[in-house]
Design a protein that fits this description.
The chain has a six-stranded antiparallel sheet. Helices cover 42% and strands 26% of the residues. It is α+β, with helices and mostly antiparallel strands. The chain has one domain: Aspartate Aminotransferase, domain 1. The protein is globular and about 35 Å long.
């Protein structure tokens, strides 16, 4: 892993921890650093500049259309509930929002419900 990827992932990890995502762990997915909830990856590094973020297909289509400077997909991700995020462009607030949404997508319902009750977001 390059130093640039380490720095990028550290930012992602730090924001996810600050959001207070329960039962989040650091691991790997497809050989790259990832954040997991209950063993399921909800975000992972694609490369030093790009984060793979889980999201509903309808949400992905809307976000890619609304802001292609931030969100995009390659042919590999077409039809898959994940989108790509340009880490050099997205600000911390928007990235935190995407991390929380991705965590909710993969967290067990009871865990997500408890987080929603305790979280101001």
């Amino acid at each position: 892993m390059t130093d640039e990827m380490k720095r990028s992932f550290e930012r992602v990890r730090r924001l996810a921890e600050a959001a207070g995502l329960p039962e989040m762990t650091v691991g790997t997915s497809y050989g790259t650093p990832a954040l997991l909830v209950k063993g399921k990856s909800f975000v992972r590094m694609k490369d030093a500049e790009t984060l793979v973020v889980m999201c509903a297909l309808e949400e992905k289509e809307m976000l890619v259309e609304l802001d292609p400077s931030l969100f995009f997909e390659t042919d590999h991700y077409k039809g898959w509930p994940a989108m790509l995020v340009r880490l050099s462009v997205i600000d911390d607030e928007a990235l935190t929002h995407r991390l929380i949404a991705a965590w909710r997508q993969k967290a067990p319902k009871r865990l997500a419900d408890r987080f929603d009750i305790s979280s101001p977001t």
